[in-house]
Design brief:
Number of domains: 1
CATH superfamily: Farnesyl Diphosphate Synthase
Radius of gyration: 20 Å
Number of strands: 2
Strand order of the largest sheet: 1-2
CATH class: Mainly Alpha
Largest sheet: 2 strands, antiparallel
Strand content: under 5%
CATH architecture: Orthogonal Bundle
Order of helices and strands: HHHHHEEHHHHHHHHHHHH
CATH topology: Farnesyl Diphosphate Synthase
Length: about 325
């Protein structure tokens, strides 16, 4: 009888740097404690506690661990990356008019829009402070370039086009700037911190970009197939905002101009709940979701190829494991 084994969990994949992730969490707590006893301190504690799986700090530690270079500098870098990530989430929720984040009220709902904006600004500054401690001008530049790229991406809204190739190209460009650029930053900056040669810095940057693209495509699939109780995000929210994602682009490519519930979300008007349910069914039954899964897998494969020149070890295997995890995650 053939024995099957469950895929490793994220905690299992990140085990080689689990202790370092905890130390990074401690550095994040220090950021919040600076404002202890104030309204800002309360919001910072809430934001940092809610900011997620710590995948981005883990990338810093795993990349550093490729070279045996995990140290206090890596802790500052990892905390800076998570401060940047958390700041962008806070601002994104305002821009997207999102009421919740991972099953909890968004900060601008719990407090106010002004308080949320200022908290995000504070976290951007905290990230800059942590990076400045490293005394590495190149890393400061990488952070600045990434923040500009992420901000610029909010102005790029891919629209329905007669050419599916152009739609997909615009979509990939968007997710690479909005999501994957921070993954790439974590890996490249860690390689800079470890004084690795430019070719290795570039390879790790490309690993991070491909991993981040795979992560975002999987996230867009969960918008259609996920369980809101697990993801903390209402199912179909991308459709309701009229956002083109990998599944919807594949669907429109296959169906062309044929009338569909999916197409109604990219036209004028506000489709009702019944139309949303029909659209989700169309996407799932058409094969579009399967094609989007193939996109996520392809980005994961591209990420793994960037690791080929690095020596085997616990951190290298964890980086490879992440490429499988992010493409098939359930939350």
């Amino acid at each position: 009888m053939k024995t099957t084994h469950a895929a490793p969990t994220l905690s299992e994949i990140l085990e080689p740097v689990a202790a370092w992730i905890e130390r990074g969490n401690g550095r994040l707590d220090e950021v919040a404690r600076r404002e202890s006893g104030t309204a800002l301190g309360s919001i910072l504690e809430f934001a940092i506690d809610a900011s997620g799986k710590r995948v981005r700090p883990a990338l810093v530690f795993l990349t550093s661990g490729l070279f045996g270079e995990i140290d206090e500098g890596a802790i500052d870098l990892a905390a800076a990356a998570e401060c940047l990530h958390t700041a962008t989430l806070i601002h994104d929720d305002i821009v997207d008019d999102a009421d919740s984040r991972r099953g909890r009220d968004a900060i601008h709902v719990n407090w106010s829009e002004g308080a949320a904006v200022l908290t995000g600004d504070y976290l951007f500054a905290a990230a800059a402070d942590l990076v400045a401690r490293l005394n590495r001008p190149r890393i400061v530049t990488l952070f600045a370039e990434t923040i500009m790229r992420m901000s610029r991406s909010e102005f790029d809204i891919p629209g329905v086009d007669s050419s599916p190739e152009r739609m997909m190209g615009a979509y990939v460009e968007k997710i690479e700037a909005k999501t994957a650029s921070l993954f790439g930053l974590c890996c490249e900056a860690a390689a800079v911190l470890a004084d690795r040669p430019p070719a290795e810095q570039l390879a790790l940057r490309e690993y991070g970009l491909n991993l981040g693209n795979s992560f975002q495509v999987a996230d867009d699939i969960l918008d259609i197939t996920g369980d809101a109780g697990v993801t903390g995000k209402p199912v179909g929210s991308d459709l309701q905002q009229g956002l083109l994602t990998s599944p919807s682009i594949h669907f429109l490519r296959m169906r062309g101009a044929e009338p569909s519930a999916v197409a109604r979300f990219f036209e004028n008007g506000a489709p009702d709940a019944a139309t949303l349910e029909a659209a989700l069914t169309e996407l799932d039954e058409s094969g579009a979701v399967d094609r989007a899964h193939a996109d996520a897998d392809r980005f994961g494969q591209d990420a793994r190829q960037r690791l080929a020149s690095f020596p085997d070890g616990a951190c290298a295997r964890a980086l490879e494991g992440l490429t499988h995890y992010v493409a098939s995650r359930a939350s």
